[in-house]
Amino acid sequence: MKKMLSIFTAAVLAVSAFTLPKLVQNQADLVEAAETKQYTIEDIRNLQDFLLGKETPDLSGKDYDLCKDGVWDVFDLCLIKRQYIQQQSKGKTLIAYFSLGRNSGNFETADATTSASIVVDSTARYGATEYIANLIQQQVGGDLYSIEVTEPYSSDFDEVADQNHNEMAENFLSELAGETLDISQYDTIYIGYPVWATTTPRAIHTFLNQYDLSGKTVIPFCTHNGYGKGNSETVIANLCPQSKVLEGTAINSSNILSSQETVIQWLNEIGMLKKEETNIQISVGDHELEGVIYDTPLAKEIMEMMPLTVSMVGYGGREYYGSMPSVPKNSGDGQLNFENGDITYCPTNNTLAIFYAQTSRPNLTMEVIPIGKVTSDLSVFDTLGIRENITFSIEE
């Protein structure tokens, strides 16, 4: 049954201010209750019109009594408006990064061929970590923010290394330049940095001390010269104890300009990308199977070759694999494991494979990159011969 307002709707609007003190006694509980619900602008209009005595649609199923006093009043409307505003302001993404290229005095003149901190593609010059930040933004959107110190580092990397070791020994917090961020508007925050001395630069410590990321999703990413993440992700997790810290990625500086596929694969793995897929058909002998191809540069490049027939050999009771007719231009870092149904590309030997059964040897000896998946029953692969021509085509 539709909830009824107390006598004289307009009068309630006028005197609501006098009834608020009673209602506010449990304000914290009421606000918390409101924030667990999702409201739309239509809900705001409906309740507002109801309070003004205007004609409304049937509101009998609406949960507008946020103060749990048996009536709908102005305080309920205020709570709904508050929640709506919070909903609209949330969900933004920040990609904050510290890049030596942007924090040394010779960014515009340094030789990119000899500096691991600067890369140049066909359009512009970037700091190495800055370049990865831009790749992330291309996939997830959001705002870019360069973390910069007030006192630039030396253009001599040996001097940078010495300064960093001294800063670490002194537990130094670098002073940051630039305007203060309104961090409250962001729910997801990527933190990028080069790995120095197997850990994070001190500017990252300053940033994470300066901004409270409690309740936010924090995602680290880093560049390195061959030694990986070090303990940098542990440091970030310790600096963000009230945040949800996801698995990061580490990009070797020598692979920066060819890392797009690696970045996309990582974002997919941590669930930050909605995986777009194209339906395909897979023909083998008299069997017609269904599958999907992912929306990644490598997968799309292979999809452009379809219809694609590959002579595949069964191996180990777990997969069929065969050589590609040409080498794709897009590639990236792979993985040494698989899920049943995975369609993969192996850059080491330029082969396409379908994995259909986990075995006693689930770990691979060469990295593979998932580009799609067979969605039909996989038991058909147990009936095939040692060699089969398998055709991949886009579903019409």
Major sheet summary line:
8 strands, antiparallel, barrel
| Mean residue pLDDT | 82
Structural class by secondary-structure content: alpha/beta
How helical, in percent, are the residues?
A: 25-40%
In what range is the share of β-strand residues? 15-25%
Strands of the largest sheet, in order across it?
9-10-15-13-14-12-11-16
Total count of strands? 16
How many helices does DSSP assign?
10
The residue ranges in which pLDDT falls below 50 over 5 or more consecutive positions are 1-35, 109-115
- Any idea what the radius of gyration is? 28 Å
Series of H and E elements? HHHHEEEHEHEHEHEEHEEHEEEEEE
Principal-axes shape call = flat
Spatial gap, N to C terminus: 51 Å
Keyphrases for this structure?
flat; six-stranded parallel β-sheet; 28% helix; 10 helices; eight-stranded antiparallel barrel; 396 residues; alpha/beta
